């Protein structure tokens, strides 16, 4: 049992209700909730002084905080975690929200990437947050690979898949490459590539380079090794993250401190920092997960929350994820079913297209 759940189990009914009302009031308004407000809404008729005592106890437990400018209370990160895990009432998906998301099914996107881009835009529009969509890796068999020189320190790998999909990836080639070494490298790779996926090719490629190094020009061998690193490297991962709706996080009345946190968030998104952390979220089982504040290693400096769910293909294999970023005072009860439904929809759409 984690600390939040342990504290919840120790609270009596009155403390639970006061705590729940404070959190719900804060999530709705963004403002501290005072004892006088609670006296009008509690099911049990108690005095404001009694409620203040309960709130002080909850503050002592680390569940509530008291901003210096107000006599009201707001939930701490620990308090929000306890609320989400033990008291959150997730409501059914709103019909209007469902219709807006379903409308993307009829979008005329030519490929999966375009479809997921449109779904990301719809998700940010419905939730008024920033949406994240992690697209699947392209897993069709390969047809052809080519190395193209763009200068002494820049080159392009052109990857043609059997289904007609083409990907271009920039990388820095080893020094001294020549047209002949690039041709030799391409010939060597293509002798192994046809009919294999990128993952399968990567697994056999480096072993083949080691085994047949004497047959290969040194420059060609270095180029092949650099190419394999590009296929499996960060450039591959970061290109798979679609971010939409960042402007939704900028409120008209945001304080300077809040704007700075959001600028940090934008910086994280632009540089796709710690993208591996987001990829790992898709490997930890089915269902929606909620990361609050510093629990979220992706954007811990932004004071934001992430609601994320993986999606699966027809074989029930997790291949990507969708999520929503917003302030920690997200309407979690509404956002969770939206993210859950969108993830299921994306999985179905990709399975149907496959």
From TrEMBL:
**InterPro entries from the entry?**
GAF-like_dom_sf, HrcA, HrcA_C, WH-like_DNA-bd_sf, WH_DNA-bd_sf, WHTH_transcript_rep_HrcA_IDD
Question: What keywords tag this UniProt record?
Answer: Repressor, Stress response, Transcription, Transcription regulation
Q: Using the record's annotation, list all stretches that form the Heat-inducible transcription repressor HrcA C-terminal domain.
A: 115-336
Q: Which HAMAP family match?
A: HrcA
Query: What PANTHER family does UniProt report for this protein, alphabetically?
Result: HEAT-INDUCIBLE TRANSCRIPTION REPRESSOR HRCA
Concerning its family, UniProt says: Belongs to the HrcA family.
In UniProt terms, what function does this protein have? Answer: Negative regulator of class I heat shock genes (grpE-dnaK-dnaJ and groELS operons). Prevents heat-shock induction of these operons.
What protein am I looking at? Heat-inducible transcription repressor HrcA
Organism of origin:
Tropicibacter oceani
Which gene underlies this protein? hrcA
